[in-house]
Amino acid sequence: MFDMFGMMNKVKEMQAKMKEAQDNLKHIRVTAEAGGGMVQATVSGERRLLKVEFDESLMNPNDKEMLADLVVAAVNKALDEAGERAKEEMKKHTEGMLPNIPGLDLSSFGL
């Protein structure tokens, strides 16, 4: 027989775990670099850019385009890594909560 009360409790438990996992994302920090460490970008698990650092040797007006390219590369790399860490965090908190249903893609929810 279908247990509606049990199902509702499971849904509430899953919601609580999802919220906890999402709250933990703001504590994740990922730093990536480009140009052999000449540019470093730090992002949060919420995929927000927090800081960009440059090697002083890049502060040449003639190398403006190269600096911009290195910043883009470092930020994108950090965002990709933060996205992966966020997925791991969400999976860790929701593991075993949802059935493995073929074709069900929850990646847009960070799972």
UniProtKB/TrEMBL annotation:
Main location: cytoplasm
Gene Ontology, cellular component aspect: bacterial nucleoid; cytosol
Coiled coil segments of this chain: 4-31
Localization annotation: Cytoplasm, Nucleoid
Keyword match Coiled coil: yes
Entry-linked Gene3D superfamilies: Nucleoid-associated protein YbaB-like domain (3.30.1310.10)
Domain of life: Bacteria
Gene Ontology terms for molecular function: DNA binding
Keyword terms of this UniProt record: Coiled coil, Cytoplasm, DNA-binding
SUPFAM superfamilies: YbaB-like (SSF82607)
Family: Belongs to the YbaB/EbfC family.
Subunit structure, as described in the record: Homodimer.
The protein's role, per its UniProt record: Binds to DNA and alters its conformation. May be involved in regulation of gene expression, nucleoid organization and DNA protection.
NCBIfam families xrefs: DNA_YbaB_EbfC
HAMAP family: DNA_YbaB_EbfC
Protein name: Nucleoid-associated protein EFA69_18310
